[in-house]
Write a structure and sequence with these properties.
- The protein is α+β, with helices and mostly antiparallel strands.
- The longest helix has 11 residues.
- The chain is globular, with a radius of gyration of 19 Å.
- It contains six helices and 14 strands.
- It is 17% helix and 38% strand.
- The structure holds zinc ion.
- The site of zinc ion (ZN) has 5 residues, from strand 12.
Amino acid sequence: MRVTFCIAACFALAGCASPAPRDRDVIYQTASIAALLEGFFDGEATFADVLRHGDFGLGTFNALDGEMIAIGGRVYRVDHDGRVNRVPLHEKTPFSIVTFFDVDHTLVVTHPIDYAEFQKRIDARLPSRNEPYAIRVEGEFDFVRTRSVPRQRPPYRRLVDAANDQNEFEMTSVSGVMVGFWFPQQMSDVNVPGYHFHFPTDDRTRGGHVLDARPRRVTVAIDETSRLSVAVTFDEPSRSADLDRSRREELEKIESGKWVPLQ
Ligand SMILES: [Zn+2]
């Protein structure tokens, strides 16, 4: 059926040109982390739009409605209760980052190590501290501790305040895949510096934004890309927002889960 449609469509197009090859060597993101931190939780890009630029990645949904995971060209939501559900591609995102994953470097962990040691091992394999990488970690974990956030209502609070409503989950003796990126400090207004992973279990029933983990037996794959493409829309009210101030401390609190509620 699909073949028939393809041929019919081909005849309908002048010249029957083959589609442009996918650009696999770029990390593509919608908006900047700075805008998300300031409470810009509604975007115009659909996941159908985003998946044209990659089938692997993470992000969130309009109204900050959960943690987003893209894997194998499918989009999943980890809801406020830590449950994973497939998401229709017409849904929209304020912040997503994707790429077409190609394995350039691998690293195998054969016994349990804590999250800090695990990150040090990956650090040693990164070709440069000045460019971002996509990273996939597949295998078994002694535990993975995650969080997800509840859907927000406008007028939106800033992310650091909205994140106070998060729920945390711990999955023990679990198999799954950590989907994520490493970004250099020098790009901390563009994306989350350091490691940022979202996790679904192998059966795609549980997951979240990773706060801590103890990998037991995993394979780490690193995708080296040569370009970063950031699609920022300049519109009201972002034109009048204060996007210049430093957010490093806020970002560290949000990403690690170690913040104190703001007064
Ligand atoms: Zn996240």
